[in-house]
Design goal:
about 20% strand; disordered C terminus; about 475 residues; 15 strands; 14 helices; alpha/beta
C-alpha cells in the first residue's frame, strides 16, 4: 500500500506473514464492518434456547427453517418487554449486528421484541395437547400405579450419552437385584419419534417386563420434539405396562409427560422414583420383625395367663358342685315358669269374664230395643211440635198464589187469591180487607165484650 504524499508503500496488517494481525484486532475489524455496514435491522424469527440468568439479561437463539442467529438482550431492554417470551414463539426483533469477541461469533444485540403469533413448534404442541386432552388421554383416572417391587424394567433411550449410565448407576446402587432391559433409539431428529414408539410397543408386548421408562436428557424445544409427536403419545397410551416419562430437565414439559402414568423431573429422578433403596427395605423389615416378635410374645403371655386362670378356677376344681348348682337353678326356673303360666291363665280368664259381661250388657237385641223406644219418643215430640198438630188445635195456614205462607197483613194483599190450609182440607178465598193493626187477641175476643175503664175514678191514695 502506498502512503499518500510520501511515495512510500505501507503493507496492510495481515497481508503477509511478516506483518500478521492479532485475533483481537481482526475481530474488532469484523465487528466494525458489521456494525457500520448493516446498522440496525428487523428480523423475523422463532425463539429457541431462551435463558434468563440472575443478571436480568436474556440470551436466546433466533431461528428459521435453515439458519440460526445468536441474540442477546440486556437488562434495560429486557425490562421493557410486555409479554412472556418462550421457546418456539414467533417474534419480530429489532437490533444491531455485532460480534461477541470472547467467542468470536457474531450476534444480534436486541433492542426491541414484538410477538408475531405463536411459533410453529409451539403451535403444534398446543394443538396436539388440546386434541389428546379432549380424548381424555391426560385424565388422572386412567393413570396406573407403579409396582412396588419391580423385577424387570424396560428403558427406551439413546445408547449414547450419560442418561443411560446415570440411571444404571442409581439402580445398581439402590436395588442391585433389578434387571434392566434397554432398547436403544434415536431421541431427536428425523425418524426418532417412530423408533421411540416402536420400542414402547415392543416392551408392551413383552411379558417379563414390569414397567417402561422413556428417558432423555435436557435440550431445547427442537431437541425434545420427538417426545411431542402424536405417535409417541399414542404408543404410551396404548402400552399395557405402567409408564414413566423422564424427558429433559425439571422445567421441560412434553406431551409424553402428560400421557405417561408418571412424570419424573429427570432420568436420574426416575431411577430413584421406581426403586427404593434396599437398605431402607432391610431397615423396615427389621422393624417389622421386632414388632412381630413383641406382639407374638404378648399374645402368648396373655394365653398363658388365661389358661392359668382357667386351670385354677372353681369350675375345674369342683365340677360336680357346679353341675348340682345348675340343676337346682333349672328346678327353680321350672317352678317359676309354671307359676307364671298359671297366673297368666287366670288373668286371661278374668279378662274374658269381664268382656262377656260387657257383651251381655251391650247385646244387639237390647241395644236395638232401646233405640226403638228412643225413636218413638222423638217421633212423638216431633209430631207435637209439627205444623199438623197446630192445625188440629184449630189454627189455619194462609198461603198466596205462589205457595208462600202469609205472616203479615198488608193493604197490597187485598183482592189477591189465597189458599187456607185447615186441619183437614184446604179452602180457596179472595182477600177483601186487611187489618194490619189487629192482633190475635182482638180477633178472638170481640171489641164489645172487652171491659171499659170507668171515668172519674182514680186509685185511692193510701194513708199512713
Amino acid at each position: 500500500m502506498e502512503e499518500p504524499g510520501l511515495g512510500l508503500e505501507v503493507e496492510t496488517p495481515g497481508a503477509s506473514a511478516q506483518n500478521p494481525v492479532s485475533v483481537t484486532d481482526l475481530t474488532a475489524t469484523i465487528r466494525d464492518l458489521l456494525e457500520t455496514g448493516l446498522g440496525e435491522v428487523w428480523v423475523a424469527a422463532e425463539i429457541s434456547n431462551l435463558r434468563a440468568p440472575g443478571s436480568g439479561h436474556l440470551y436466546f437463539t433466533l431461528k428459521d427453517a435453515t439458519a440460526t442467529l445468536a441474540a442477546v438482550m440486556f437488562q434495560r431492554e429486557a425490562r421493557r418487554v410486555s409479554f412472556s417470551m418462550a421457546d418456539g414463539q414467533a417474534v419480530l426483533v429489532r437490533g444491531s449486528i455485532t460480534v461477541y469477541e470472547a467467542r468470536g461469533q457474531y450476534q444480534i444485540q436486541v433492542a426491541e421484541v414484538r410477538p408475531r403469533g405463536q411459533g410453529t413448534l409451539q403451535q403444534r404442541f398446543e394443538e396436539l395437547k388440546r386434541k389428546l386432552q379432549a380424548e381424555n388421554l391426560f385424565d388422572s383416572n386412567r393413570k396406573r400405579d407403579l409396582p412396588v417391587f419391580p423385577e424387570v424394567i424396560g428403558v427406551v433411550t439413546s445408547l449414547q450419552g450419560a442418561v443411560l449410565q446415570d440411571m444404571l448407576q442409581i439402580l445398581q446402587r439402590r436395588a442391585p437385584g433389578i434387571r434392566i432391559k434397554v432398547r436403544g433409539v434415536r431421541v431427536q431428529g428425523i425418524g426418532a419419534a417412530e423408533e421411540i414408539a416402536a420400542a414402547i410397543g415392543a416392551f408392551s408386548d413383552e411379558e417379563k417386563v414390569d414397567l417402561v421408562v422413556v428417558a432423555r436428557g435436557g435440550g431445547s424445544l427442537e431437541d425434545l420434539w420427538a417426545f411431542n409427536e402424536e405417535i409417541v403419545a399414542r404408543a404410551l397410551a396404548a402400552c399395557s405396562l405402567p409408564t414413566i416419562s423422564a424427558v429433559g430437565h425439571e422445567t421441560d414439559f412434553t406431551i409424553a409427560d402428560f400421557v405417561a402414568d408418571l412424570r419424573a423431573p429427570t432420568p436420574s429422578a426416575a431411577a430413584e422414583l421406581l426403586t427404593r433403596d434396599w437398605s431402607e427395605w432391610r431397615e423396615e423389615i427389621g422393624q417389622l420383625r421386632t414388632r412381630l416378635d413383641r406382639t407374638a410374645r404378648q399374645i402368648l403371655t396373655g394365653y398363658r395367663q388365661q389358661l392359668s386362670r382357667l386351670a385354677s378356677s372353681y369350675a375345674l376344681r369342683e365340677p360336680r358342685r357346679i353341675v348340682r348348682q345348675w340343676a337346682q337353678r333349672i328346678d327353680d326356673l321350672q317352678i317359676n315358669l309354671h307359676a307364671a303360666a298359671h297366673n297368666s291363665i287366670q288373668d286371661r280368664q278374668h279378662e274374658l269374664r269381664l268382656l262377656q259381661a260387657r257383651l251381655t250388657a251391650r247385646h244387639p237385641a237390647r241395644e236395638l230395643e232401646r233405640r226403638r223406644s228412643l225413636l218413638a219418643q222423638l217421633f212423638a215430640r216431633l209430631r207435637a211440635l209439627g205444623p199438623q198438630a197446630t192445625l188440629d188445635r184449630g189454627y189455619a195456614l194462609v198461603v198466596d198464589s205462589q205457595g208462600h205462607p202469609l205472616t203479615k197483613a198488608a193493604k197490597a194483599l187485598e183482592g189477591q187469591p189465597v189458599q187456607i190450609v185447615l186441619s183437614k182440607g184446604t179452602v180457596e178465598a179472595t182477600l177483601t180487607a186487611t187489618h194490619p193493626e189487629k192482633t190475635l187477641i182482638d180477633t178472638l175476643i170481640p171489641q164489645s165484650s172487652k171491659p171499659t175503664p170507668k171515668k172519674g175514678k182514680s186509685r185511692p191514695k193510701s194513708t199512713l
